[in-house]
């Protein structure tokens, strides 16, 4: 054995195999995340459809419930969301790499978090009337009473949202990504069951209108109560896989020396960014409650027809969920996966690699988002009719709101991808300034929007979101050019233009099919009922998609193959099959073509060394304008599956991070050249040896 010659090439993949293995891992991770999101979104839309069926989309009760049900998520993100993801996530991931897999450290963090969450939840719930006053405008005494009743049922969700986020990070840190991905499905199933019981016992809104006058505690239980029970179930089911980790987690007190103070100092810009974004969004949502309150006043005066033409915040919420679909399924998954590639390039000082990753992400996700924008615009009418609960006027208002939002879909996703570059570069200061600009624009605009005619307020807010998405791309691009030199603009623009032509062609084909189905005739088939609207979408949607794919092929848009590769990669187990020659890096075969073509037998047979990913977060910190208050579990993922083949370089001590006390080499924002990672200078020694824990286990100093 002593005579054996060292063969370093077998301890790590070659330069040719490394990018190939990384792409295979990224493809599989992105596909799994997108699949889980797709199922969850499908059930979420089913829940939204049943809510409109039960209560009516344009009813005051629906507006009141949606506002109250959105509050727990918004308050959690405002008060604790940034802390959980920017401070606790890096700590949990670092601790999980210790000899005891972080059991002692994570037990203390969980105990602290549970205590804080309980206090926060109890305080906010007791102050429910004040919270409703601060987040609504123009509510009558009767509507406020119902809003407070909904809030008492919904605000306890804050505790379970926080616990869900923490358990998700514990699972992610131990390579268990599936449970947290599928848990929200149980949430939707429980909420759907409650709405189903409501319809079965009390009837639909169309058959038996549900108003403030005939509303009672039993209806509140079925709608708001089951919504909260669903959140509880979503969190409780995660306890099963957490217990299977056998970490020995238990309540542990004594938090001095845990390191959260230092981590919070390093994350102050991320926390400030989240706070600014959420405060601006809460103010906009307050303005969005005005039309609903005015609708109630008109109904009390007997002006039923005028009241029916006022879209409320329920219309904005449902349109937002539809508009978010391409982003949440494709862009969010792709950005989360590419974040690790961006981080590695940033740590290596590889500005060109960082630019290539951004260019690849922008172009690949555009295949879905550009088509999604035109498809939502074309299908807005039947989609509005389907989600309106059967009311044609509500369907028209939903369709109008959706058409305003739809065309900015690519901009929203592009800005989200751009923001990942800043965080990969460990620069949280620049996103804060970008968010501050956007928040100021949104708040000032919203202030003037409240003085518009009541029937224009929701449409104006939708237009504000669209303008904010476009402005965010412009501002972010300006900062990124200073960081990267250029953004591969000609290539990105060329791809977007080609996709735009293909999407426009598919929209023209869809318009013809919609015309044949009577979508542009008030008495046409598409507007005859919910089932007819669904049939219209089911027929026209595939036609548009088929035309889009054909035109992409004709225009030779190579990014189509990159987007489909995760799906094809699931059918191919070998990494070599996953790398089919598609331009994944954004620079063709440059830098790898020689090695791929040459003979590297040792690399092709060598095992790929699996290493843990560095701590990453995908929290929506508000860098893009929030357009939906609904809880998005995907925001609390830390990155792709650490069990996938990856080529992350090992630190000098064999760990997953560089030296603990050495600041990162990546460049920060203005006036700051080096930014250390959150939590690097906190205690991470042997378990039970922390000298600051007062329980006698450590050696006191």
Descriptive notes:
Helix 14 packs parallel to helix 17 (392-406) and helix 14 runs parallel beside helix 18. The chain has helices at 17-55, 60-95, 103-126, 128-135, 141-154, 157-173, 178-202, 217-236, 239-244, 260-266, 268-288, 290-300, 304-308, 313-347, 351-378, 380-386, 392-406, 409-424, 429-449, 457-484, 489-516, 530-554, 559-569, 575-578, 593-597, 601-605. By secondary structure, it is mostly helical. It contains 26 helices and no strands.
Q: Span from first to last CA?
A: 47 Å
What is the N-to-C succession of helices and strands? HHHHHHHHHHHHHHHHHHHHHHHHHH
Helix run count? 26
Low-confidence blocks of residues: 1-16, 573-625, 638-684, 692-701
Strand content: under 5%
Strand tally: 0
Helix content: 55-70%
Rg computed from alpha carbons, rounded to a whole number of angstroms: 26 Å
The biggest beta sheet reads:
none
Mean pLDDT: 76
Principal-axes geometry comes out as globular
Strand-pairing-aware structural class: mainly alpha
Keyword list:
0% strand; single chain; 701 residues; disordered C terminus; mainly alpha
Secondary structure blueprint with pairings:
Layout lengths: L16 H39 L4 H36 L7 H24 L1 H8 L5 H14 L2 H17 L4 H25 L14 H20 L2 H6 L15 H7 L1 H21 L1 H11 L3 H5 L4 H35 L3 H28 L1 H7 L5 H15 L2 H16 L4 H21 L7 H28 L4 H28 L13 H25 L4 H11 L5 H4 L14 H5 L3 H5 L96
Question: Could you give a quick summary of the protein structure above?
Answer:
The chain is mainly alpha-helical.
């Amino acid at each position: 054995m002593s005579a054996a010659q060292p063969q370093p090439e077998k301890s790590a993949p070659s330069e040719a195999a490394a990018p190939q293995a990384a792409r295979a891992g990224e493809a599989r991770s992105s596909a799994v995340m997108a699949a889980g999101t797709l199922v969850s979104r499908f059930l979420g839309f089913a829940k939204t459809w049943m809510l409109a069926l039960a209560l009516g989309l344009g009813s005051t009760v629906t507006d009141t419930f949606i506002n109250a049900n959105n509050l727990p998520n918004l308050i959690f993100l405002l008060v604790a969301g940034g802390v959980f993801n920017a401070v606790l996530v890096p700590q949990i991931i670092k601790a999980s790499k210790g000899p005891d897999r972080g059991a002692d450290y994570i037990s203390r963090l969980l105990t602290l978090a549970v205590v804080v969450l309980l206090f926060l939840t109890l305080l906010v719930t007791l102050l429910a009337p004040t919270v409703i006053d601060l987040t609504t405008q123009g509510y009558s005494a009767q509507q406020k009473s119902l809003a407070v009743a909904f809030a008492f049922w919904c605000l306890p969700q804050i505790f379970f949202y926080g616990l869900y986020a923490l358990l998700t990070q514990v699972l992610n840190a131990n390579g268990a990504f599936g449970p947290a991905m599928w848990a929200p499905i149980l949430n939707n199933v429980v909420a759907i069951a409650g709405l189903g019981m409501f319809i079965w016992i009390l009837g639909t809104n169309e058959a038996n209108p549900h108003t403030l006058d005939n509303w009672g505690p039993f209806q509140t239980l079925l709608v708001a109560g089951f919504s909260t029970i669903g959140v509880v179930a979503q969190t409780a089911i995660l306890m099963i896989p957490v217990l299977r980790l056998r970490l020995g987690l238990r309540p542990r007190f004594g938090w001095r020396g845990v390191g959260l103070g230092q981590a919070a100092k390093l994350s102050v810009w991320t926390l400030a960014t989240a706070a600014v974004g959420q405060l601006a969004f809460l103010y906009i949502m307050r303005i969005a409650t005005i039309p609903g309150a005015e609708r109630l006043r008109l109904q009390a005066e007997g002006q039923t027809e005028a009241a029916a033409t006022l879209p409320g915040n329920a219309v904005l919420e449902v349109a937002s969920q539809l508009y978010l679909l391409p982003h949440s399924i494709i862009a969010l998954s792709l950005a989360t996966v590419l974040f690790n590639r961006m981080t590695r390039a940033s740590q290596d000082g590889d500005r060109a690699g960082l630019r290539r990753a951004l260019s690849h992400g922008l172009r690949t996700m555009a295949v879905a988002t550009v088509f999604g924008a035109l498809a939502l615009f074309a299908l807005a009418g039947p989609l509005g009719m389907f989600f309106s609960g059967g009311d044609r006027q509500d369907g028209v208002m939903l369709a109008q709101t959706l058409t305003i939002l739809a065309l900015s879909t690519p901009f929203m996703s592009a800005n989200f991808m751009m923001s990942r570059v800043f965080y990969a570069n460990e620069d949280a200061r620049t996103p804060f300034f970008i968010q501050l600009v956007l928040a100021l624009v949104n708040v000032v605009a919203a202030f003037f929007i409240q003085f518009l005619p009541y029937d224009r307020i929701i449409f104006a807010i939708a237009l504000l979101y669209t303008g904010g998405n476009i402005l965010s791309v412009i501002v972010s691009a300006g900062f990124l050019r200073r960081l990267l030199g250029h953004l591969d603009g000609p290539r990105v623009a060329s791809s977007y233009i080609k996709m735009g032509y293909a999407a426009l062609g598919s929209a023209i084909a869809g318009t013809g099919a919609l015309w044949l189905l009577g979508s542009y005739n008030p008495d046409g088939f598409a507007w005859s009922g919910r089932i007819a609207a669904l049939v219209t979408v089911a027929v026209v949607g595939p036609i548009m998609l088929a035309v889009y794919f054909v035109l992409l092929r004709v225009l030779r848009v190579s990014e189509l193959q990159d987007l489909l590769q995760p799906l094809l990669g699931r059918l191919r187990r070998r990494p070599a099959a996953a790398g089919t020659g598609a331009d994944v890096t954004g620079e063709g075969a440059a830098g790898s073509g020689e090695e791929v073509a040459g003979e590297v037998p040792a690399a092709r047979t060598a095992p790929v060394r699996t290493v843990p990913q560095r701590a990453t977060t995908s929290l929506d910190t508000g860098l893009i304008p929030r357009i939906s208050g609904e809880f998005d579990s995907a925001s609390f993922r830390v990155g792709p599956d650490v069990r996938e083949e990856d080529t992350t370089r090992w630190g000098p001590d064999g760990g997953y991070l560089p030296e603990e006390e050495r600041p990162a080499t990546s460049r920060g924002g203005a006036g700051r050249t080096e930014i250390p990672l959150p939590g690097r200078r906190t205690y991470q020694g042997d378990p039970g040896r922390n000298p600051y824990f007062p329980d006698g286990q450590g050696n006191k100093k």
